[in-house]
Amino acid sequence: MAKDYQQLWMGISNTVDEAKATQTLAEILADKDGRDFVLSLDRENAESCIEILDNVSLGLRLPRSQPHVVRQGIAGHNLKPAERQTFTVALRRLAERHTMLPSRIRMAGDIEVADEPLASSGFADLRSGMYGEHLVAIKTLRVTGRDDYVKIRNVSIDDGHPGHTISIISFQHFYREAAIWSTLSHQNISKLVGVQEDMNNRQFSLVSEWMLNRNIMEYIENHPANRLELVRGVTFSAAPFVEVG
Length: 245
Known about the structure:
- With 245 residues, the chain is an alpha+beta fold.
- The chain has 2 domains: 5-98, no CATH class; 112-209, Phosphorylase Kinase, domain 1, CATH 3.30.200.20.
- It contains 9 helices and 6 strands; from the N terminus they run H-H-H-H-H-E-E-E-E-H-H-E-E-H-H.
- Strands 1, 2, 3, 4, 5 and 6 form a 6-stranded antiparallel sheet that branches.
- Strand 3 (124-131) and strand 4 form a beta hairpin.
């Protein structure tokens, strides 16, 4: 008998029982039809699902009316490793599809940004800056005056390029990178502080810890380094987060 995913989802939306909601969502995500259902959620329901996925993935209690959350520990949800990975993948795909991120990583407050970029890629510039008393690295999506980001943000990934200067794909890749990075916690991976979304000033930035030794290539040039150990460190930090299938 086919599962009624809409009914299961409504049960999640209406419950305050974290364990029950988590297990129900795991049931939905256990097969392809359920995962397709989650990806088909409208923007409002997708936002709720992103919050639940993010909180469960980090071991937080599900969101309530209060603005704070309490640490619980993912073990309390009794999720298997494969289920945890499924939750993380679903979070990434929803974030990319709807260009939407968990409230936990959306930054409030001003960031002082250096004028000159330290490096540039195809669609982004990297600068240093200050967030409060902390030195941070800021990767900002490059924009032009012709980019209509409000319209781009409301275009489904399946609709393709909306005809503006910057591709919808690069914009959604920005959100995919943010969603994936936000779930990583490893000594060899710099910490994502948060994401700044400023529609008025057309600023979309990934803000991370500042690395005093800059990137790995500059570190190797300026320090005696065991390159094999560095490669091994990169491999070990990335391996747990590889998406399979």
